[in-house]
């Protein structure tokens, strides 16, 4: 594929550009963009891949953005007025083209697998199959098993790891394979607790806990959660989980047909809700800037924040009427507790449950007897970074940034 220069402006600082033709398609690149992203060895560190040339501090933005574009072989070459030379291959130009939008080539080689939502029926089908959620602790360091664990957490929002030694040490090992353990005021590492109210939170009781995500009163909510039941000599204490990605689709479907549900969707995705954790006298947490459901431009779930136990009593400066806010929350609550949208099962010593705390709600039934649970909060960024390294070859990724 050859490069043809169609048009260029070379002496107007930030407004300088070059228009090129590649395979009958036109692409415009501003020269400030090309100077900022010069691919020469002098511009980026060989090992860290960080910029070495800072266009905002190292060059004169009024004169050094002036350059003369030309074509040499299959490369676009820009000779800058300060003597620097930049070269761009056809592959680089296609990967980084940004205008016009109709000609942008999507880079499918670095696309994450699609997320797969589930209800009770789909969950049971997956759990009963031989191909899902059969991760063995004894092979957890094998690349295939590790990759499968990450894939299932990312795609389905959860996974199970079986045959785990019933110990804090093994729980910590599994946690650290998946991500970095996030310290909190509950514990600085793997937490280990029973119903003794050693921390002033209902998790530290034998009471039933309804569907929720953890840490809504924090700006940095836990990305993932990991549960490992160490022992229980009584009854109850079963776990319930629900995929909010599936519930969101149900709400969006209802909203497409009913104005009342359209308002419910607007409230759930736009009305900030206040959450707090005020049980500990030395630590009081509060967050009030986010709605129950954060979605992206395609209507896909980014994050759910929900725990009716931790909501404050304040509903001031609202974008919607209070009665409609309550109607929306009630509808959401009905859907996440609908038995067709959630599943219920007992945790068992030796089996670890890991789930996406931004996507999967969890609950616990009341129990009696002594019940000892350990687990961890895991950072989301580090999980995604490790998953990215498992999915893509390093060269693929570097070509896309």
UniProtKB/TrEMBL annotation:
Cofactor needs: Fe(2+); L-ascorbate
Cellular component terms per the entry's GO annotation: mitochondrion
GO MF: iron ion binding; trimethyllysine dioxygenase activity
Gene3D superfamilies: 3.30.2020.30, Clavaminate synthase-like
Protein's name in the database: Trimethyllysine dioxygenase
GO biological process, one term: carnitine biosynthetic process
InterPro entries the record matches: AlphaKG_dependent_hydroxylases (IPR050411), GBBH-like_N (IPR010376), GBBH-like_N_sf (IPR038492), TauD-like_sf (IPR042098), TauD/TfdA-like (IPR003819), Trimethyllysine_dOase (IPR012776)
Organism whose genome encodes this protein: Kluyveromyces dobzhanskii CBS 2104
Keywords, alphabetical: Carnitine biosynthesis, Dioxygenase, Iron, Metal-binding, Oxidoreductase
